Amino acid sequence: MPRQLGELEDAVMTRVWQWNRPVTVREVLEDLQQERSIAYTTVMTVMDNLHQKGWVRREVDGRAYRYTAVSTRAAYSAALMNEAWSRSDNPAAALVAFFGMMSAEQREALRDAMRIVLPTLPEDAEAPDGEAGEAGEAADEAEPESGR
């Protein structure tokens, strides 16, 4: 599974994901320079590294490359969450702790996602004795007293 992107890799990929079209090093450079002082060769190296790591594909366009994201930010985030969860020695406890850190908006997004995913699960993947409903209730109850 993918490792977390570094700060500059994330800044570059954020632009590639947001623009959702083939981009050049020059375009990314000019946008990054609005926030920080950075050299063309630095951005070129980062984009080449992202290509080597499989985050972007590139096509020749004249004397330059145009880079396109291989997957979405949502897929990247999901892979990171899955990796972190799979490393836990107690996945259920990790989920309860994670749910407890969520804001009300994040919990609502989780509910929306569950409404989308649950009808598509195969019958043999359903939790026995209605446990899926209990998991949703546990997520609601996991909110810490701080009111987050």
Radius of gyration: 20 Å
Helix/strand/pairing category: mainly alpha
Low-confidence stretches: 127-148
Major beta sheet, strand line-up: 1-2
Written as H for each helix and E for each strand, in order along the chain, the element string is HHHEEHHHH
Fraction of helical residues: 55-70%
Which geometry do the CA atoms define?
Answer: elongated
Strand fraction band? 5-15%
Number of helices: 7
Itemize the secondary structure elements and their pairings.
Elements: H1 7-19, H2 25-32, H3 40-52, E1 56-61, E2 64-69, H4 73-86, H5 91-101, H6 104-117, H7 131-141
Antiparallel strand pairs: 1-2
Helix pairs in contact: 2-3, 5-7
Explain what this protein looks like in three dimensions:
The chain has helices spanning 7-19, 25-32, 40-52, 73-86, 91-101, 104-117, 131-141, and strands spanning 56-61, 64-69. The protein has 148 residues and is mainly alpha-helical. A two-stranded antiparallel sheet has the order 1-2. The chain is elongated, with a radius of gyration of 20 Å. 9% of the residues are buried. Mean pLDDT is 84; it is low at 127-148.
Provide tags for this entry.
148 residues; 57% helix; 2 strands; mainly alpha
